[in-house]
Amino acid sequence: MFNSVAWQSLAYHAQCQLWRRAFPIAVCSKYFEPLKSNKFIRRHIMLGPQQSFSKTFFFRQLFDQESSTYTYLLADINSKEAVLIDPVLEQAIRDANLIKELGFSLKYAINTHMHADHITGSGVLKKMIPGCKSIISKSSGANADIKLEPHDVIEFGSFKLDARPTPGHTNGCVTYVAEDQGIAFTGDTLLIRGCGRTDFQEGDAATLYESVHNQIFSLPENFRLFPAHDYKGHMSTTVWEEKRYNPRLTKPKNEFIDLMNNLNLPYPKKIDVSVPANKVCGIQD
Ligand SMILES: N[C@@H](CCC(=O)N[C@@H](CSS)C(=O)NCC(=O)O)C(=O)O
């Protein structure tokens, strides 16, 4: 099957053929041959056609200003089954109201990892919405209704998320990939033009580097990536963009490790309350 990148490439070549018929070969070679290998054309082909969502796939990006955290509401419009990725405690009422308003039924409150900067909303959402189950990876060491093994699949309606293990920021970090929709939720593993820090919890720069290169940069280049945080006003990126412009992850591994080990960032303000609370997905007795 042709995807949209292939179609656009085909359309470009067909256009070249038409011009070749209309004009002498010399003119065509002069203007089109250099273009064909030109970065502009390749950039246009890769940047332009990001895969569009299925008609029944619902996607909403939500933001918590205090922690600069993105939460994602995904749903199947037909079955009404929904999931929330990385809900934030302080936004649980906002999220529950939106889900109710849209007539969705929240099946899972999913965590990409055990966050250190804010308390997850998954515990409170479970109390607010009967039937909702919390999810985190088994390797996070946290408690939840469902503890994922690598590559477990989460289903909601007719859609799926593949849990790709991407340790490095923490041991239990997962990138959730919706293959059919051409999107991935990278948590704190890959941030837009950055990445999660590796200086606490079980952080390890070499592991994070391998995770990104093997599990995220191996996705098709037109896949859109949605992180758990952004501190500069960006909302999403693509595999293509990050493979070229990520200032950390485009470096050789040894330089990356050196850079990550010398970031000297202050610890997140809420780390001492967030980590213990997130060990039980936000619910404390
Ligand atoms: N100032 C914030 C914490 C900012 C921070 O450390 N962010 C983390 C992700 S949340 S643990 C991170 O990995 N940042 C990477 C970077 O390069 O900044 C607070 O006090 O909460």
TrEMBL record:
Q: Which family does it belong to?
A: Belongs to the metallo-beta-lactamase superfamily. Glyoxalase II family.
Q: Which top EC class applies here?
A: oxidoreductase
Any coiled-coil regions, as ranges: none
Cite the Pfam families for this sequence.
Answer: Lactamase_B
- UniProt cross-references to CDD domains, sorted A to Z: POD-like_MBL-fold
Q: Which organism is it from?
A: Laodelphax striatellus (Small brown planthopper)
Q: What is this protein called?
A: Persulfide dioxygenase ETHE1, mitochondrial
- Please name the taxonomic classification of the source: Eukaryota, Metazoa, Ecdysozoa, Arthropoda, Hexapoda
Q: Where in the cell is it found?
A: Mitochondrion
Q: What is its EC number?
A: 1.13.11.18
What keywords tag this UniProt record? Acetylation, Dioxygenase, Iron, Metal-binding, Mitochondrion, Oxidoreductase, Transit peptide
Q: Which residues form the Metallo-beta-lactamase domain?
A: 68-229
Please, which domain of life does this record's source organism belong to?
Eukaryota
